[in-house]
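tool=predict chain=A
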Amino acid sequence: MQLPDEMTCPHCGSIYERTYTKVSMRDKDYADCDVCERRLDSWNGSVIPMHRLIKRGELP
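tool=predict ok
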């Protein structure tokens, strides 16, 4: 299993802690930023990232 990491929204600079959950079936989906509501991350597999907002960025 992967360790938690940090990622930054490329659109507004919000910082997220990203953890991972393994599921039994393959999943294809995406997550949007809680601040600017633009695409933050996407996946296609059985390891699903979970995002927790740590620091809000600035809206453009």
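The CA atoms of residues 12 and 60 lie 7 Å apart. The two ends are 35 Å apart (CA to CA).
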